[in-house]
Specification:
By secondary structure, this protein is mainly alpha-helical. It is 62% helix and 5% strand. It has one domain. A hairpin with a 7-residue loop joins strand 1 and strand 2. The mean pLDDT is 94. The structure holds zinc ion. The site of zinc ion (ZN) has 8 residues, from helix 4.
C-alpha cells in the first residue's frame, strides 16, 4: 500500500482514538489497572424512587455504550499497532491485501471482504 495512504489512515486512526477516549471519559472512569479500559460511572440523581430508576436505566445505557466504544477503541489501537509493525492492510485471516478503498472507508478493517463475509 502507498506510504502516503498509510500516513493518511494513521492520522484518521489517531483522531478517532482521541475522539473515542474523550467520549468514554465523559461518562466512564478510566480503569487504573488496565490501559484503555473504562468503567461506566453510576449516576447520582437523588434518592427518590423515580431518580433511582433513572440512575439504573442510564447506568445500563452507559454500560452498553462503554462496551461499544471500548471495542472501537481496541480496534483502532490494533490498527495503529499493525501500521507500526508494517502489517497494516493485510487480511488477518487469509493474508491477502485489503483494497486501499476499503481501508480508507474503514480504517479499522482487518479482514478482506471475502473473509468478512464468511465470518458473518
Ligand atoms: Zn481474507
Amino acid at each position: 500500500m502507498d506510504k502516503k495512504i498509510i500516513e493518511q489512515i494513521e492520522k484518521i486512526l489517531l483522531t478517532e482514538k482521541e475522539e473515542l477516549k474523550k467520549q468514554l471519559e465523559s461518562f466512564a472512569d478510566k480503569n487504573k489497572h488496565a490501559e484503555n479500559d473504562y468503567d461506566a460511572k453510576f449516576p447520582d440523581y437523588g434518592n427518590h424512587e423515580d431518580e433511582n430508576a433513572a440512575e439504573v436505566a442510564d447506568f445500563e445505557g452507559g454500560l452498553y455504550l462503554e462496551k461499544t466504544l471500548e471495542k472501537s477503541l481496541q480496534k483502532t489501537i490494533e490498527a495503529l499497532e499493525s501500521i507500526k509493525k508494517g502489517t497494516y492492510g493485510k487480511c488477518i485471516q487469509c493474508g491477502k491485501s485489503i483494497p486501499e478503498k476499503r481501508c480508507l472507508a474503514f480504517p479499522t478493517a482487518n479482514k478482506c471482504m471475502d473473509c468478512k463475509k464468511s465470518t458473518l
